[in-house]
Design brief:
heterodimer; A: four-stranded antiparallel β-sheet; 11 strands; 0% helix; B: mainly beta
């Protein structure tokens, strides 16, 4: 069974630009969550989508947005990029297991803002 | 806001040694998960514990959830270089909402 696929793996953007990252969850998983990982802040929750609806949102500015399509694929967008947005962006799909929710993460998109 | 702390932050040991890393919070979690992350990859789920006092074993790894469901430990027996990575704990409710991650313990096992 294919895992979570994130594209692109690496991205370099200039301050002020905008970027779109893509995530294809495991087939059958309807929940997709996005996290930002930096050395200083660790893993920070961005938002979660379930059946095309944003179900939860973390404490990030409105420049960070996302959406989910009917096939459960998700995109996140960051507008007006800042140097501090440089990070590893991780997508996780999840489904209910016998122990509750289980996250499967993608390999991430490494975004560098210069 | 629920926060998770992990200790130690860094750990470097020789192959064959035993080690324990800790995950603590002042909040109660309905479930707690442990992940291992290798450089350039996303975290990989190792285990989920949901019952206070629960102990789970995964080969050389032993996970324990505290009785009060506020803390957890991960014990590795006879560590191997392949155990090297960032160990993250994450707490949340059974519905996968309000999930928070700890800052991680970076483990290095030297051959």
């Amino acid at each position: 069974k294919a895992g979570v696929t994130q594209t692109p793996r690496y991205l370099i953007k200039t301050r002020g630009q905008q970027v779109t990252l893509s995530c294809s969850p495991i087939s059958g998983h309807r929940s997709v969550s996005w996290y930002q990982q930096t050395p200083g802040q660790g893993l920070q929750f961005l938002f979660e989508y379930f059946s095309e609806t944003q179900r939860n949102k973390g404490n990030f500015p409105g420049r960070f947005s996302g959406r989910q399509f009917s096939n459960s694929r998700s995109e996140m967008n960051v507008s007006t990029l800042e140097l501090g947005d440089s990070a590893l962006y991780l997508c996780a799909s999840s489904t209910v297991t016998g122990d509750g929710y289980g996250y499967t993460f993608g390999s991430g998109t490494r975004l560098t803002v210069v | 806001t629920q926060l998770l702390e992990q200790s130690p932050q860094f750990l470097s040991i020789q192959e064959g040694e035993n080690l324990t890393v800790y995950c603590n919070s002042s909040s109660v979690f309905s479930s707690l998960q442990w992940y291992r992350q290798e450089p350039g990859e996303g975290p990989v789920l190792l285990v989920t514990v949901v019952t206070g006092g629960e102990v789970k074993k995964l080969k050389r790894l032993t996970f324990q959830f505290g009785d009060a469901r506020k803390d957890s430990s991960l014990h590795i027996t006879a560590a191997q270089p392949g155990d090297t990575g960032l160990y993250l704990c994450a707490g949340g409710d059974n519905y996968g909402q309000n999930f928070v991650f700890g800052p991680g313990t970076r483990l290095s096992v030297l051959p």
